Amino acid sequence: MTMPARLLSFTLLLPLWSAAQWLPARRSENYDPNRRGGRFDLRVRVDGDVDFFIRGDRIRYVVRSGRPPEDEGSEYNRELPSGPLRGLRLEKRDGPEEIRILEEPSAQNNWTLVVNIHDREGGESRYHARITWEDSGKGGYSGWGEDPWSDRPGGSVVTGAPRVDIDTAGHGEYREGRGRPRRFTRAYFDTRDPYKTEIGLGGERDRIRFYGEIVEHSGERLVVRLRDSNHGVARGQAEVTLNRDHNEVENVQLRGVIDRVPVRAEFRR
Q1: Which of 22, 154, 246, 255 sits at 20 to 30 Å (Cα–Cα) from 69?
Q2: 120 belongs to a structural domain
Q3: Structural domain of 194
Q4: What is the pTM (predicted TM-score) of this model?
């Protein structure tokens, strides 16, 4: 499930998007979205240390060392559900090294299964991990980039925060890990649903979107706890200052991680 590139502006930030790290996964011949339980076969070639993030029907990856992995025909007979699982099991069917589960799907990681393969052999090796599970009867697959929560948390969202839907031109900079900063020219802020506040950075159509909850507000300043993004599981915090008189976003300060990769962004009108 993977793609550590952040598309912020279609023209200025296209190189960042092209660095996106995803692998394809296909529906198997016996695909059935209504079956109880399921199977996801991760088939890849690995030369190095790689984390794989499986969520729904997507595979995103982060290379810790070595080369990017190659697809070897990953497939699933149903998507990984966005809800609790029973009997989660990983069976290694091919590969010289161990295949480990680093994190099981949970509400805290937005129902993402994190798998690590560390290939210490010289040259790339083929790996096949068969992942199987049973449903708990709660939740279901909602699709990548849609609502990542099967239910809404209680007690964490503050009341009385302003309800706004603002798109503002300005100057911004986005950095992922130790990569070069990328510039963007627009910030979008939507608080109409306080449980899924959206912060968008980039162009009008092509932007990275962060989702979270408003946990603090004072006057024109709001603090959003990040819980997701359209490019991977996000954690962190963003501070947004508004200019309500002109219906604009004054500035944004964002710090966090996407699939364990540190990210930061700053914007000013």
Answers
A1: 255
A2: yes
A3: 165-268
A4: 0.57
